[in-house]
User: What shape does this take?
Amino acid sequence: MLTLKKTKGNFLSSLAIGAMVLGLGATTAQALELRYSDLGPPRGPRADTLKWWAEELKTRTGGELTVKFFWSQSLVKGKETMKAVGAGLSDTGTILGIYTPAELPIWNLANAPFGVQDPWIGTRTWQEMRETVPALRKETQKRNVKIFFNFTTGAVDLISKDPITSVEDIAGKKIRTSGGWTGLIKALGATPVKIGFGELYQALDRGTVDGTINYMAAAKAYKHYEVAGNFTEIQMGQVLGYGAGINLKTYNKFSDKNKAIFDKLGIEFMDQYAKNYLAGAAAAKKAMMAGIDGKTVTFHTVTDIDKWKAAGASYTTDWIAKMTKKGIDGEAFVKKFEEVKAKYENELKTKGYPWTR
Assistant: This one.
């Protein structure tokens, strides 16, 4: 029987009931169906790449490892996914560090404003950081979870009811935000509002918020363009504290051969996802500009980008100070991060993306 501390939403009861109904997973390396809990709908570049990954996993393991998806939080709520994966209710799932800042403080540096701009560089950098920095792995390992590839939202931009092209435009607005962008939005004179991403459509429609941080492909996939007709491209970094996790006990059931396939495919996933994301974002922008079902989006840029960058500059220095209190050398971690990022920036500059070589 699973034992966890009780949390909001009767999570303990959900685990107990879910475990009995769904079972605790297959017990042999020869045939494992992995339950994957995702917080989004089965559409868009990320969902499409997850489906690709599942098909490749099935093919390469000769059907020994298969995946059953539970989209749109139908198995477990997004905020509870890490606990669910660690406990075995969901063998695998999408874990968002913003939902668990206390449990994953190191990984949440990945959500710094104006950090990494390119999705391929971002996912590869943070996955290599995980593979080479024990402290980062331990955050999830102590919760019986292995992060096996990194996601990205792509560039953090804004979608809003009214045009936003400057600090003056956003001042006084109610903006849905999360992670490192909360402090930035507040510093710009707006009011940060915490609302789940799945609730954004209604919030924008009803005027509960005037706008939200958003991402090109997601704005189309979640149909936010129907209720907010202005998109401001600012590229305020990416949400990179965001990845796919697997229950460690489940992973350890794999044969050595299947572990190697699983790990290698994780790297390939990030390349495939970056490719799909970049193409999907371009297609989403084109479609929203042209109009979808009569809904047209107007695209903007800001005229005072330096002010926006200055508003988010304190995130990393504050993070280093917090890590120091925890006995972690935050400055060394940031230095390592910058070195790894520079490596991938140079690789992209000299060789191009993997799918173009």
Q: What stands out?
A: Residues 34 and 271 are 22 Å apart (CA to CA). Residues 22-153+239-279 form a domain with the D-Maltodextrin-Binding Protein; domain 2 fold (CATH 3.40.190.170).
